[in-house]
Amino acid sequence: MSGDDRPDEAGADAGGPPAPGSAFYGRRKGRPLRSEQAARFDDLMPRLRLPLEAATLDDLKALFPGAVAAVRLEIGFGGGEHLIHRALERPDLGFIGVEPFVNGMAKVLMEIGRRGIENIRLAGVDATEVLDWLPAGSLERISLLYPDPWPKKRHFKRRFVSPGNLDRFARVLVPGGLFHFASDIDTYVDWTLRLTRAHADFAWTARTAADWRQPFAGWPGTRYEAKALREGRTPAYLEFRRR
């Protein structure tokens, strides 16, 4: 989720404020779900949700019914276009999607049900809760795509890319694992470059300017990217490797 389409700050919505201790800023709920969406939510979410109340799993791959070679995480998947595309593209991998916004979760559940996708698991909570639950060295890739930029300086501390969250990324990524970040907001791109390049556990993989102006391999595009391009903003695609 990102840009002008993202929910407003917590406390200004029908979903109420986040749970105590949560770092999530944003609405939990927007328009009421349609009856079909609500039914799909009740049907699929209990089966697909991460068991965060249980002890951390020894093997994250056990979450998925079929054999998967590795597991990837997408934080704030919005409408789920990228998450669905990647899961269909790579049925040999497991995918975890995190999205606290109920309406975004409903959209992805509709697609999962319609397409019969088996290699996605979901969490509708603050992503830090998921990161702290995951086993160390359990992820091949983390994607943070068009996150809320929080453009006002006094809100910079709300940006998801932070030294603390980069520590979390480093803990759960395997050596050689990747952190993918995309944004059309220059100040957030600069922020992410500065913080991640300063982190001892990450190396920026770009060698030329084209490396971070070109979308990631197999990139399907998202509605946030399309909006940015219509409004004349140039997205950046940053890749960092876990040392």
From TrEMBL:
- State if Heme is listed as a keyword: no
Q: Would you identify the family this protein belongs to, as annotated?
A: Belongs to the class I-like SAM-binding methyltransferase superfamily. TrmB family.
Where is the stretch described as Disordered?
1-31
This protein's GO cellular component annotations are: tRNA methyltransferase complex
Task: Please identify the protein, giving its name as recorded.
Answer: tRNA (guanine-N(7)-)-methyltransferase
Q: What class of enzyme is it?
A: transferase
Key words of the record: Methyltransferase, S-adenosyl-L-methionine, Transferase, tRNA processing
Signal sequence interval, chain numbering: none
Any idea what job this protein has?
Catalyzes the formation of N(7)-methylguanine at position 46 (m7G46) in tRNA.
The pathway is: tRNA modification; N(7)-methylguanine-tRNA biosynthesis
Database matches in NCBIfam families: tRNA (guanosine(46)-N7)-methyltransferase TrmB
| Residues binding S-adenosyl-L-methionine | E74, E99, D126, D148
Protein source organism: Methylobrevis albus
What EC number(s) has UniProt assigned to this enzyme? 2.1.1.33
Q: Where does substrate bind?
A: K152, D184, T222, R223, Y224, E225
Checking Gene3D superfamilies in the record gives: Vaccinia Virus protein VP39 (3.40.50.150)
Would I find Transferase among this entry's keywords?
yes
- Mind telling me which PROSITE patterns this protein's record contains? SAM_MT_TRMB (PS51625)
